[in-house]
Write a structure and sequence with these properties.
The structure is a single chain. With 133 residues, the protein is mainly α. It has helices spanning 10-27, 30-38, 46-52, 58-70, 92-126, 128-132, and strands at 44-45, 74-79, 85-90. A three-stranded antiparallel sheet has the order 1-3-2. It is extended, with a radius of gyration of 21 Å.
Length: 133
Amino acid sequence: MSQRNTGVTVQAVNAQACPVREVLDRVAGKWSVQILVAASHGPVRFTELERGIEGISRRMLTLTLRNLERDGLVTRTVYPTVPPKVEYELTPVAHELNETLQRLTGWAEQNRMYIAEARAAYDAEHRPELLDA
């Protein structure tokens, strides 16, 4: 049997991969990871997230929280106070995901210097014009 004729069509692969890709795109997004990590210690208010996540705009925080809530990873609780108090908290599924995110961020922290050195070596070899700038 040739390697080209495996009986697996592109459509079959995409049909299986698409839902997984959608989930990974959502939970691995730049802002999603930071929000999930920030909310991992218990309920957190919008303004705490806004202050604690450098570079995020109010709009992006709102959109990302809404998407995480839609995906069942964050719950939003509104307290009937004046002004209204809103808290966000991870769901049990998100706490399970957080264990993986903690390992991933730990790995990134441990290996960030290695990666920086590898990038510098690659750039020096493949793109020396960048070093002269």
